[in-house]
Amino acid sequence: MYTVAVSALPGGRGDGVPVTSLIDLEPGTQPAHYFAGSADTTLLLANSGGFGLLAKVLDMVGRQKAGKAFLTLDDADRLLPPVLVQPTHKQVACLSLDGRLLVFPLDELKLQSNGGRGLTLMDVDAQTPLQAVATFADMVTVLGTGRSAKPKDELIRGVGLAGYQGKRARKGKKIDGFVKPQRLQA
Q1: How far apart are CA 91 and CA 107, in angstroms?
Q2: Class of residue 134 by CB neighbours under 10 A (exposed 0-12, middle 13-18, buried 19+)
Q3: Which domains, ranges and CATH numbers included, belong to the chain?
Q4: Which of 93, 96, 132, 186 would be a feasible disulfide site paired with 100, CB 3.0-4.6 Å?
Q5: What is the pLDDT of residues 107-150, one digit of tens each?
Q6: pTM (2 decimals)?
């Protein structure tokens, strides 16, 4: 994780600088995701291997230009985009590449201020990695493609949501009607 103070960012039009002048990026690597927010903001960090954790932005701030080791990834895993956890959010949704959805209570996760590997969010394997995670209050939207490769989105709430609820670290249930579910939206 790399930290850049907002005051160090260039101004507007025409004042851009390469990100490598702000951080010491390891050779052969690229930044995966960016996030800007206040120090007390809570994020859900997850990887394609099915692991994740909750952390405050302040916990991830590093003073060195070389970055801070915070999240442990296996070689085959990739980092998923960080998810903003709102105070009203009470549930977590996990979507695997093969279209399985698992919903569980947010309180099954804990804040991990020192980072690490995290807890198992969803039981996945190398052929069907975790594709997306979201936190939400009472409804979540699954976006992807349906038949004939047409874009499709489905809002899941109430009784429909109950069919996907379970305990953390389970496989989840297949979503019907999607050829390729791709992401979640709170």
Answers
A1: 8
A2: buried
A3: 6-185 (2.120.10.90)
A4: 96
A5: 999 999 999 999 999 999 999 999 999 999 999 999 999 988 99
A6: 0.91
